[in-house]
């Protein structure tokens, strides 16, 4: 019945709910990345407030949107309602199908967050004034910027460090070493640093050199006996960015020259940023003295993004192209392509090309066909055995699940690990104990220990208690929640 209510509301009530929604969004926008809000809270609104039940009802276009919102923003939404409306009120999440056509909601959300649809002004080539920036024939690519880089738990530290370096080259985080597997955004971040430095101060000279290019320059200089000329090129450089340093392997002479360049930069307190596909100590055939220096640098790693970040990246790429693809299909794509953003982007481009050629919207079959082309599924939809074998490989750590569950129930991790016997705390704790045993193969001792030094008998009691509840017909909400958590683990 609730679902039909908004149509019957008076204009005043509608205006009030809309206004409250605006305030709530502004409130939570302080804590959350705006791109994440746009991606995961696009078609959501307040559909009613029930004073007798003390509940605020939030509506979402579909199950996926509801679950993501609860997972990512439950705690913040609750706090916002308590602060802006009434601390006595609780939140209720409902699927509200009319919102799936609610594009106005998204437009409003963008307005509230002051997000413009047109991409921000790109750095114009001539603004990169110094001839030196193109000394090596390489300019920064204006498409790689901070504002179109999605930050997530997988790259947060590298992202923050890169931003700090871009704002104050040579002071904060110097030198900086960024590493991560291929296709995870290292080059994007380095280019963003270069773009930002030259944009902030046209007098500053930043130079980007793939390590292979550095090798080429050095070999040529040696051959033509022009080493001094080459070294002088670096004199006026304020920030030196060398990409993919692993390619210096076995290039002894280049390593030596680089070592000299680096010492010079270090002495003059000029910024150096290096990327690599592995951590310093795993670099092969790189001079030990160079390697040990890298280890002393600020080292920031980038991991594979989680599902939400992958979807947010796809959304950002679509936005930049002013294109759209059904949200559920994007998430299907992101569920399969997990470890390489470049491939994820490649898949998106395949889908967009198909869309253009066929003149119709992308379908689920298109997504599966594309996955097959890229060798992801053999064209088959995943069988249950495949899903479960993939699950075993899942690197989702237990800590992350604990954090996600805490957020889902608007509790803190500390509370879960405390001896609090509050109903909601102990239910969440018991659910986690069961998950720890079933999916993370933890021993009962370890489980007890993890949750605040409880003994293994407590863990046994907790697990059998929650298993019983999960079978009870009156515990539908708990069963639903448990299913959601299992899906997170199996993702
Ligand atoms: P790497 O240098 O680590 O191999 P790239 O920087 O070339 O990876 O990234 C591959 C592609 O993925 C690029 O098009 C880049 O824009 C995109 N990409 C990777 N991570 C992100 C991110 N967090 N947000 C937006 N785009 C990303
Ligand atoms: Mg790269």
Describe what is shown at a glance.
This protein is α/β, with parallel strands linked by helices. It has helices spanning 5-8, 11-29, 34-40, 63-84, 103-112, 156-167, 186-200, 211-223, 227-233, 252-267, 288-296, 307-320, 327-336, 341-358, 364-373, 384-393, 398-408, 413-417, 423-440, 444-450, 456-471, 476-490, and strands at residues 44-50, 55-60, 90-95, 176-180, 206-210, 239-243, 271-276, 298-302.
Explain this structure.
The chain is α/β, with parallel strands linked by helices and 491 residues long. The chain folds into 4 domains: 2-112, DnaA, N-terminal domain (GMP Synthetase, Chain A, domain 3); 135-302, P-loop containing nucleotide triphosphate hydrolases (Rossmann fold), CATH 3.40.50; 307-379, Helicase, Ruva Protein, domain 3 (Orthogonal Bundle); 396-490, DnaA protein, C-terminal DNA-binding domain (Chromosomal Replication Initiator Protein Dnaa, Chain: A). Helix content is 55%, strand content 9%. The chain is built from 22 helices and 8 strands. The chain has helices at 5-8, 11-29, 34-40, 63-84, 103-112, 156-167, 186-200, 211-223, 227-233, 252-267, 288-296, 307-320, 327-336, 341-358, 364-373, 384-393, 398-408, 413-417, 423-440, 444-450, 456-471, 476-490; strands spanning 44-50, 55-60, 90-95, 176-180, 206-210, 239-243, 271-276, 298-302. The strands form 2 sheets. It has a 5-stranded parallel β-sheet, sandwiched between helices. A 3-stranded mixed β-sheet has the order 1-2-3. Helix 2 (11-29) packs across helix 4, helix 13 (327-336) runs parallel beside helix 15 and helix 17 runs antiparallel to helix 19 (423-440). The two termini are 34 Å apart. The structure holds adenosine-5'-diphosphate (ADP) and magnesium ion. The site of adenosine-5'-diphosphate has 16 residues, from helix 7, helix 12 and helix 14.
